[in-house]
Amino acid sequence: MRKAFLLLLTACGAQSAGNSTTGGNNVSFGGAQDLGQFRDILDTGGIPGPDTLDANGFFNEHFNAPPPADCGQTLCLTPGLAVGRDWLTGAHQATVQLSITTPVDPSTYHRMPMNLVLVIDRSGSMVSDGRLDKVKAGIATLIDNLQDGDHLAIVDFDDKVTVDAPLTAALDRPHLKALVAALSPRGGTDINAGVQAGFRLLGDTPAADHQNRVILLSDGNATSGILDTSTILANADASIERGIGLTTIGVGHDFDVQLMRGLAEHGAGNFYFLEDGSAADEVFGQELDYFLTPLALDVHVTAAPGAGFTFGEVVGSHLWSGSSMTLPAVFLASRTSQTGEPGRRGGGSMIFIHATPTGHDGASVGSFTLSYHLPGSTEILTQTARLDYTPDGTDNLYLSAPEMAERYAMYNMFLGFRYATQQVDQGCAAAGLRATKTAATTWNAERSDPDIAADLVLLDKYLANLGTADTGASLGTCGASDPYQGGDGAYYGDGTMACSTGGARGGLPIALALLALRRRRR
């Protein structure tokens, strides 16, 4: 068993196009950008359901140091492989990590001017929990942060639609703020009519010298007009295809997350949740410049397993289907470190693919292809990266690249939370959280990852909210099966390893075990 572990541990390698040494920055895939609704439910003593925990949103609240964007293009795809133990079950775990990075620097990033339409829900339900007040605070911050050259329009809706300000370059900020401040809740919620009114203000032929985007701010429950989610999405698609983006901002505990997230995913946009005033400041201040302008469009990623592995579940995007995904747009992530920035949003997106080894030595993990085009261009740019391992028979042991360990922890923390939200028996939810907490606490005692520490705070709130429902049940009695059942334990080895196309390879969080092994072999 030890020999197999060492061979796999030291044998990771890959080939990828490009020979630059440019540093990398993370990107976001659009869609959910936070776990604000999940966090808000916990903060107010509730128990979150499975729809409130989105993998893409969870990953965007974690910063992981990116690999170099060294492919010589605007986007670079870097695959890596981590093998260890599932935090929830303790079972053997192998996961392909797909990271997309960019050489574009957030600190020097300048977005295109905007044609921006705000579509504001003023329905009666917006009085609950101060929802409309949160929206007003966010819009005031947005208006303050608009740049010279930006054009703004304002639409409000309930079961009727009103154009409060047509699209204009005259940014009379006090007047625009006064218009929004005067809104009060009333009536039903005709989301389709509001969104369509916003699209119409940008015209049938959107201006080519500006980014054209609608921002919908709503508690997301259609009660008037068209109610069917698929029809609302289809109606939005017609305008989106003309080059108009759609970003959504949600408020309230009980909005239709499928609709709000779906509109953003269809609309080459992002979905955020405003749980409080500080979230409004974060989204419309820190995030504004990054969620408005795409870095690339029609981004296509494919994953083909090699002889050494088969691929299973994919976590990280609702848009993954079969062996690939197509993203309408990707955006520059705003966070550049784990410290020194307010809030948690803006860390960037990731894809994780469950992998099962076939037992072949000297075989390929897989081949991964990225294609896209830049805004304003029809040229398709492509990159292919292959991830291989070839046992070399040496006894060398390497510590892993830190970013591989950070992603490994983030992924396993998500799996623990996901398990809890999916349980009908809340005692089983608590059992999953306790198992995840034990593994995460041990891991973070060595790594001191601020994002994992913040996750543990959420986890403790979850356990506290479960209260007497925590019956002390075990995962075994709850039917938590080994998701890697049937895998060759000797092939996996007893420790944790990682490899990536960047050449980093070695054990992830168990340096002490590696040290002990080296001493025994002397």
Task: Give structural attributes.
disordered C terminus; 20 strands; single chain; 15 helices; disordered N terminus; 13-stranded antiparallel β-sheet
**Percent of residues in helices:** 25-40%
Mean pLDDT: 83
Q: What's the number of domains?
A: 2
Count of DSSP helices? 15
Q: Which geometry do the CA atoms define?
A: globular
> How many beta strands in the DSSP annotation?
20
Structural class: alpha+beta
> Cα distance, first to last residue?
18 Å
Query: Strand count, sense and closure of the main sheet?
Result: 13 strands, antiparallel
- How much is the radius of gyration in Å? 24 Å
Strand percentage lies at: 25-35%
> Which regions have little confidence, pLDDT < 50, spanning 5+ residues?
1-21, 392-400, 483-498, 500-522
